[in-house]
Specification:
The chain has one domain: Winged helix-like DNA-binding domain superfamily/Winged helix DNA-binding domain (Arc Repressor Mutant, subunit A). The chain is built from three helices and three strands, in the order βββααα.
Length: about 90
């Protein structure tokens, strides 16, 4: 896929090189997924997050962002484990 095309990452999330330099955003907004993940990490409730963005991000969108983040983390960890020597715990 050419670099200049948008990539649909889910029902609510897209990476479009013309929006926020291709960072994953919520479809139809310039709200970056990382902004929402940061709010979740700080313990903000999903209801409060939805309200703070005026409803432009939904609970379903937050759930999709969490699932995507988990998948990316899991894939990264698997790659790291495959390329790093096993460490033994004494």
């Amino acid at each position: 896929m050419p670099r200049h095309q948008k990539k649909i990452l889910g029902r609510y999330i897209v990476a479009n090189p013309k929006i926020c330099h291709g960072k994953p955003t919520f479809i139809g907004t310039r709200i970056m997924v990382r902004q929402i993940l940061r709010q979740v990490a700080k313990g903000k409730s999903w209801d409060a997050i939805v309200k703070s963005w005026g409803g432009r991000v939904t609970k379903e969108g937050i759930a999709e962002a969490m699932t995507l983040a988990e998948r990316v983390f899991s894939d990264y960890f698997k790659k790291q484990a495959a390329t790093s020597p096993s460490a033994s715990i004494s």
